Amino acid sequence: MANKEASAHLNTGKKLLSDGKCDEAILELDRALSIDGGSADGYLYRAHAYVNKGDRDRVTSDDGVVASDGRVYDGKDDYEKAIADYTAALAIKPATPEILCARGHAHRRKGDYERAIEDYTVALGVKPDYRDALNSRGIVHYRMGNHKMAIKDWEAILRIDPNDPTAKQSIEIAR
Questions:
Q1: Which residue from 9, 70, 84, 74 is spatially nearest to 39, judged by alpha carbons?
Q2: From CA 14, how far away is CA 31, in angstroms rounded?
């Protein structure tokens, strides 16, 4: 989001959503979208809030509907449908790091580590400091036995936040 006020509302909405306060999150995300109506993240997170509160009828008006459907399927361990929906969402909003990362998670849960790494890598090409993609790619590298590559991803997180406890612990385990 280009506008600082819109970004502040988006960040508050994301925090409220992660705290399970869906109604409050929707209000903040609505404020963000009223300032910057072109925010893919705003629509995506608002769609997630509607899904979390069980108001799927409202989701259909959001651009993030397909990604949210993917999230629903992902939560039900139906990874093929989740991947298909995330792919459809990327056709609407190409190179959206959050959707790429979500699809990467579905590939990872399905056991398709190569495709997961591809999605995380593309997400990082768009947003190099995206910690979720760095950590997730590190996890996949670790599971594949590529400990040096995993450590590189977690070290990249520590360059962003030197106090990140998850990255520190992951590096210790991988060594």
A1: 9
A2: 12
C-beta of residue 30 within 8 angstroms of C-beta of residue 4: no
- What's the CA gap between 144 and 113, in Å, rounded? 8
- What is each CA distance from 141 to 114, 145, 152, in whole angstroms? 9, 6, 10
- The rounded distance, in Å, linking the Cα atoms of 119 and 101 is 6
Q: Enter the DSSP assignment of 163.
A: T
Angle, helices 22-35 vs 4-18, to 10°: value is 160
Using one digit for the tens of pLDDT, what is the confidence trace for 4-51? 898 999 999 999 988 889 999 989 988 988 887 666 677 778 877 877
Residues in the chain: 175
Domains within the chain, CATH numbers bracketed: 1-62 (1.25.40.10)
**Residue 77 — φ and ψ, nearest 5°?**
60, 25
